[in-house]
């Protein structure tokens, strides 16, 4: 954790009144995708606790004068535990500060936002939540992939790949036939793709992995359920990445390359593997 003072002193009401907490969904990484309400909350903040995946490059401008606290988990840094984050939020609010908890994407999509809201309630601290643009939808869109497309699919499911899916979950997902979006799914990619095929999904179903959406190094790797583990290894895919499984991947593009070209490349790679 590192603390970086803006103009120095911690603001807020010093008369003993409790400050308030705003959980802000920062969107998938670009300042442009922060909401107007989120930007306004940052402007008023005395303290900002931010995550690695939240847009934090311009925080000194967006939150002038706020104490900026990095609670992000970066490799090599000792992560701040969820309980410590909750304690920090509550402590600053009880001292009278206006606290913004800036999170990546939407606070309520695998963001532990609800745990932070509950911690505020338990401490008697007023809390509001400003939704954000979730990476589950925006990152595929950045690669040209719509999650629904008339005549192709009318449903999508967003799942966490943080832990392996159970057989029951895999069976239901394979049976649904819609688009499947997996967050935090790089580690469990082999078990998810093989599991879906085991429960009847077509091994030729297209799959896309979009790494570092909205950054200068955004990359899309396309393959099929059968090939994507090889494609991902060949492309040295790493987190953060969003995985999309479904026919809609046929609409993807990467720079000038369209999905058909990406798929042909992926098949050629799989043949070599
Ligand atoms: N609350 C967040 C998700 C938190 S889980 C949201 O709504 O977006 C963290 C996961 O989100 C990452 O492991 C990755 O799967 C995905 N993710 C978030 N930002 C991303 C980005 N810019 N590019 C690719 N994946 C991203």
Radius of gyration: 21 Å
Number of helices: 9
List segments where confidence is low: pLDDT < 50 over at least 5 consecutive residues: 5-13
Instruction: Describe the main β-sheet briefly.
Output: 6 strands, mixed
Notes on the protein architecture:
GO terms for molecular function: uroporphyrin-III C-methyltransferase activity. It comes from Conyzicola nivalis. It holds the Pfam family TP_methylase. This is uroporphyrinogen-III C-methyltransferase. Keywords: Methyltransferase, Porphyrin biosynthesis, S-adenosyl-L-methionine, Transferase. The protein has 273 residues and is an alpha/beta fold. It folds into 2 domains: 2-133, Cobalt-precorrin-4 Transmethylase, domain 1, CATH 3.40.1010.10; 136-272, Methyltransferase, Cobalt-precorrin-4 Transmethylase, Domain 2 (2-Layer Sandwich). The chain is built from 9 helices and 13 strands. The chain has helices at 36-44, 59-62, 82-94, 113-123, 135-142, 167-176, 189-198, 228-234, 259-272; strands spanning 2-5, 21-25, 47-50, 67-70, 99-103, 127-130, 156-160, 179-183, 206-211, 219-224, 241-245, 253-254, 257-258. Strands 1-4-3-5-2-6 form a 6-stranded mixed β-sheet, with helices on both faces. Strand 9 and strand 10 form a beta hairpin. Helix 3 (82-94) packs across helix 4 and helix 6 crosses helix 7 (189-198). The radius of gyration is 21 Å and the shape is elongated. The protein starts with a strand and ends with a helix. 45% of the residues are buried. The model is unreliable at 5-13 (pLDDT under 50). S-adenosyl-L-homocysteine (SAH) binds at residues 28-29, 53, 104-106, 109-111, 134-136, 139, 183-184, 210, 212-214, 239-242.
């Amino acid at each position: 954790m590192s603390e970086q003072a803006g103009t120095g002193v911690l603001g807020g009401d010093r008369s003993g009144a409790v400050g308030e907490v705003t959980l802000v969904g920062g969107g998938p990484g670009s300042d442009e995708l922060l909401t107007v309400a989120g930007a306004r909350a940052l402007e008023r903040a005395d303290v900002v606790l931010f995550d690695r995946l939240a847009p934090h490059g311009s925080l000194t401008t967006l939150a002038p004068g706020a104490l900026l606290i990095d609670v992000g988990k970066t490799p090599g840094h000792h992560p701040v535990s969820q309980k410590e984050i909750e304690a920090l939020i509550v402590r600053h609010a009880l001292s009278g500060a206006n606290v913004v908890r800036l999170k990546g994407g939407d606070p309520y999509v695998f963001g532990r936002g609800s745990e932070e809201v509950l911690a505020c309630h338990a401490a008697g601290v007023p809390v509001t939540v400003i939704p954000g643009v979730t990476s589950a939808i925006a990152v595929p869109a950045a690669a040209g992939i719509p999650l629904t497309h008339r005549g192709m699919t009318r449903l999508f499911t967003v799942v966490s790949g943080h832990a392996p899916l159970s057989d029951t979950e895999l069976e239901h997902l394979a049976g649904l036939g819609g688009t499947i979006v997996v967050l935090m799914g790089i580690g469990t990619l082999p078990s998810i793709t093989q599991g879906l095929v085991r429960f009847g999904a077509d091994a030729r179903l297209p799959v896309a992995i979009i790494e570092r959406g909205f950054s200068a190094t955004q990359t899309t790797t396309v393959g099929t359920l059968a090939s994507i583990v090889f494609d991902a290894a060949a492309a040295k895919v790493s987190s953060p990445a969003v995985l999309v499984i479904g026919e809609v991947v046929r609409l993807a593009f990467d720079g000038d390359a369209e999905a058909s070209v990406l798929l042909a490349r992926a098949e050629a790679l799989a043949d070599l593997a």
